[in-house]
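Table S2 (text version). Query chain:
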Amino acid sequence: MGIINKVEFRIISLARSGHHGIINWIIGQCHGKICYLNGVKPNSDPYSTHISKDLKNITEKEFNKDREGKTRKLKKDYLLYSYEELPLEEIFDGGFEKNHDKYLGKSGKKIDVLVLRDPFNYFSSRLKLEEIGLYNANIRIKLTNKESRKMLMDLWIRYAKEYLGETNFLKNKKVIINFNKWAQDKSYRKGLAKKLGLKFDDVMMNKVTKAGPGSSFDRLQYANDAGKMKVLDRWKVFVDNPFYREIFRNKEIIRLSRKIFGELDGTKALSQQQPFWDRIFYGCIHHLHILKGRLKYFAKKIIFSLGLRNLIIAYKKEK
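Corresponding structure-token output:
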């Protein structure tokens, strides 16, 4: 069988790293038949395990026929699929490579993309997501749990080491993306497009992707004007939060962050010990926010289960 996918992009990131915005931006520069599979599971067929998809110039009928076949036959110009919040050794297990052509069909070019966001804004976005009542969203590691927090910190460290080349899990052509630079530097984005083999077009730069709940802080408020979101200042919201500050007492996170992102103005204070009574006070505030968020989540779940959602939408429209 010949080439099925002219170009294959495998995207690896942690949840809330801004990777959906980057994927949206990449797709905006792709032309022809495009298939994107979001949130696939490791060592398995991405067509069977994705949680959502985005198709361009491919019909649902064509996609389903291709997905249900024993082998992929529908020729595509670009195939993209993303792994989220998984240990790198799970993603790059040898079993997947052995079954690659069976799962996806042969690809002309294969590019591995690693997205990394600075830890201060990354962990802030994660914590905010849990505060606003999306604790049980499609995220398997919860920052509010002590053991999970350590697991997530270890994952960020592993991804940062791969970014720096201290490890080498990504086997295809490797393109690393610094989310901070991508978000604020057009010339950096232009250079990335060249590395990815794309004709540079920034048309999707200010579009907030609808994959997931949108921004942890702004949701879809800036859906068509993402440039207004203060994605590099999210950490300031949790500057007094003792659970958040505890993360930055980890010397390895600080070392890697400075090496990749430099010194972010004002963040040095986060690694310093907080006064005892501040820890008690802001710790209580933190727990109240989490409790409020969880109650909000379960209230929404009950509303959905009782079928009241459509009634509420209709009532709002009437008003």
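Notes on Table S2: Strands lie at 3-13, 34-38, 52-56, 76-84, 106-116, 173-178. Confidence is low (pLDDT under 50) at residues 211-229.
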